[in-house]
Structure formats: C-alpha cells, structure tokens
Amino acid sequence: MTVYERGKLNRVRVGTRAAYDQEAIFKILDAGLVAHVGFSDHDRPVVIPMIYGRIGEQVYLHGAKAARFAKVLGPGVPICMTVTLLDGIVAGRSAFHSSMNYRSAVLHGRAALVTDVGERKAALEAITNHLMPGRWAEARPMTEKELNATAVLAFTIEEASAKTRSGPPNDDGEDYQLPIWGGVVPITTVFGAPEDDGVLAPGADLPESILKIIST
Amino acid sequence: MTVYERGKLNRVRVGTRAAYDQEAIFKILDAGLVAHVGFSDHDRPVVIPMIYGRIGEQVYLHGAKAARFAKVLGPGVPICMTVTLLDGIVAGRSAFHSSMNYRSAVLHGRAALVTDVGERKAALEAITNHLMPGRWAEARPMTEKELNATAVLAFTIEEASAKTRSGPPNDDGEDYQLPIWGGVVPITTVFGAPEDDGVLAPGADLPESILKIIST
C-alpha cells in the first residue's frame, strides 16, 4: 500500500484525524462527485469545481479547450485538488467546540495535458463513469470532433492527505452540566427520482447507470 | 446593487450561465455550508475546506491559530474562495453533453487577520450562525482563552462571479432519435434526525437552531 510521505504541503497541522495512505485517500476520491481544483492564474489563486476520474494512481480532469484551466495549466504546473464530503453539523455546547463531520482528501500534484488519443479516451471514460457508473458504454460514442474540443489533464499526485472528523462534539468537561443540547445533525447527499427530458425516443428506457446511482 | 466588473480573474470564459451581481453571488454563499479556500504555500496552490460567515459585504473565515492558513495568510495575501452547490447529474445521450447541474460562486480577494476583539466576536457569531441559525445565543458564551486561540480572517472581495447550470441535457439534434435515456438525476442535501450525544443535562432540549436546520 502506498503511503504518502508527510511533506511541507500535505502535513496536517491541526487535529489528529489525518491519514496519508492511498487507500483512505482514494476512498474519499471515489465517493465524491466534484473536486475543487486550485491553481495559479495571473499570480493569484483560483479554485474551480470540476468533475474527475481515476485510473489506478492516475487522476484525470477535463474541460473545454477554451476554458481557463486548459490555457493556464501547461506541463508541470502545480495544482491542488480537494474533495470534501460533508457528513454532519456538530453542535457543541459551546461555539468553540462546534464543528462539522466530514471526510476530505487534499492532493498536491502537477498537471499535464494528455495528447495520446487512447489515453484521452480512457480518461474521459473514467470521468464519465465516475459520475454515472457504466454510462460511457450506454452513451452515443464520442466523435472525433468532440474529442478534439476537449482538454484532458493528467494529474500526478506528489503529496496527499486525508482528514476526517466523525462522532459527537468534544465539549469541555464542565459544559456537560449545562442545559444546552449537544450532538450531531447528519448530512446526506440524496439522489432523487430521475427526470427524463420529455423527448425520449422509443426504447430509451431508464439505463443501468442511472438505476445504479439512485440505488446508492 | 453591486455588480462586479469582469476582470482578468472572474471573467467566466465558457458557457453563458454567468452572473456578476452581488445578490446572485451572496445567495449561493448563504445557501452553502463549506467553502473551498485557495491560497499559496511554498509557491504551491493549496485548497482547504472551511466554514465561513458573512456580515454585509464582508466575508469571514476562522481556524485554530496553529492552522496553516493562519500562518500563511498575512495582510493582503490573495485568496480565492469557492462555494459549490450540486443540484443534479445531467445524463446526456452522449458523454460530451453529460454534465452536472450546479450553482457556484467564486470570490477573489485578499485576507487580513482581524485583531479588533469586537469584530472578531461578531465574525465568529456570523460563522456559527451561518452553520446553525441562532446557535451563538444558545451556546455557552465564548471565553477569552477560546477567543485568543482562534484566528479570524476578514476576506475582502475584489472580483467575483457566479456560474449556474440547470435543466435537461443539451443534446445534439440527431441524438434525440437514439434509444438512449436523457435527463437529470436531482441531488439534494438532506439533514437527518438530530442525534444527541447521550450525555445531555436536564433541560437540554432540542434547540431552535437545530429545529431550523432540519425544517429546511
């Protein structure tokens, strides 16, 4: 099992709820839908929500070739990619001990535009299937024109860490005597009933990919 | 109504679903729970999930004084703060036209540690109440020691934009003839039944703040 070394970027300073092993980090990545990707533009930090996919240790991002990220992110440009899953609001008896329950993975790495057509297709398949398991095979195949209009970015992880908070508030000893409620409000992401767009062709039944999503 | 000028940082390049007015941007901010905050550390971009609060045009962040952000973010250091709300998975008949429905606000600005005690308290109240409406008044008052251990950051917005996608997929004309399902799987964030920590003192009833959260 790969464990990332604690470097100057990924070392979690506060709290003891850190993990540095790939298994913990990829578990959060695989459970998330959207990453917040940070990079530098005009010497300023920029954070953009993006979907992503993973093949083994390789993470992929994509976007229109006209998008900023495709223009700014030349080979070797450093980026940071963070995936956060919210699990609950933690109501402590004091504001100081109020918090959130969450799982987050922070990945530090470098970007490279993928030029190889085979790798580009595999990456787009991984991104599509990450959002909707098996959708790539169900969908109309990607055309050459679409492939050419899409920038695919390979993200190579250099340092990474995961951070988790779970469970009830950690209130101060004496505060437990106060008549103040303490506990957690759980947060879940719920997929609703699929809404077709009203112009389905004959035979366009609800596919496996969507059935899989709503059964989770 | 304040409308942010389209600058080199906030101009949305792709798609026409952009807004630059404060009302649209603050609406997304107020509906979100967690922001992804980007800044530079050792010349590398870092993206960290953080809770936040807002008082008028002023956005506040906070954290332990020992946390990286409190050490790295000196006066005038540029930061970017992004709040994303996921509304649905958009299943196009092609992978190319598959997407997500979302609302996101991207704020570019500069950080300053708040030193004034009154402003620090007001900021922490805003952050606490953003997560749990009215919780600040219910909770045990913050002590001097807790206040001193907490770094409060004022975020001054310089440029900002909002981006939204909603509705069904925009498939290619001829693809509507294919026997492939097209539509949206709605995503909602659901607050579950509050779980107290099992050590409530007498009289520690479920408070207004929590009742408000679970009624949304």
Task: Explain what you see.
2 copies of one chain form a homodimer. Chain A has helices spanning 22-31, 68-72, 117-131, 135-138, 144-149, 208-214, and strands at 18-19, 35-41, 44-50, 52-55, 58-64, 77-91, 99-113, 150-165, 183-191, 195-196. The first copy, chain A, is α+β, with helices and mostly antiparallel strands and 216 residues long. Chain A has one domain (18-171, 185-214): Roll (Pnp Oxidase, Chain A), CATH 2.30.110. In chain A, strands 1, 2, 3, 4, 5, 6, 7, 8 and 9 form a 9-stranded antiparallel sheet that branches. In chain A, strand 4 (52-55) and strand 5 form a beta hairpin. Chains A and B meet through strand 2, strand 3, strand 6, strand 7 and helix 3 of A and strand 2, strand 3, strand 6, strand 7 and helix 3 of B. Strand 9 (183-191) of chain A pairs antiparallel with strand 9 of chain B.
Pick out its properties.
homodimer, 216 residues, alpha+beta, Pnp Oxidase, Chain A, 6 helices, 10 strands
Name the chain pair with the biggest interface and residue counts per chain: A-B, 99 and 99 residues
Helical run tally of chain A: 6
CATH class of chain A: Mainly Beta
Largest sheet of chain A: 9 strands, antiparallel
Shape of chain A: globular
| Mean model confidence by pLDDT of chain A | 93
> What is the oligomer described by this structure?
homodimer
β-strand percent of chain A reads 35-45%
Structural class of chain A: alpha+beta
Total number of β-strand segments of chain A? 10
- What number of structural domains do the residues of chain A give? 1
**N-to-C span of chain A:** 28 Å
CATH topology of chain A: Pnp Oxidase, Chain A
Which bin fits the share of residues in helices of chain A? 10-25%
Unreliably modeled segments of chain A: none
Helices and strands of chain A, in N-to-C order? Answer: EHEEEEHEEHHHEEEH
CATH homologous superfamily identity of chain A: Electron Transport, Fmn-binding Protein, Chain A
The CATH architecture category of chain A equals Roll
Radius of gyration of chain A in whole Å, from Cα?
A: 21 Å
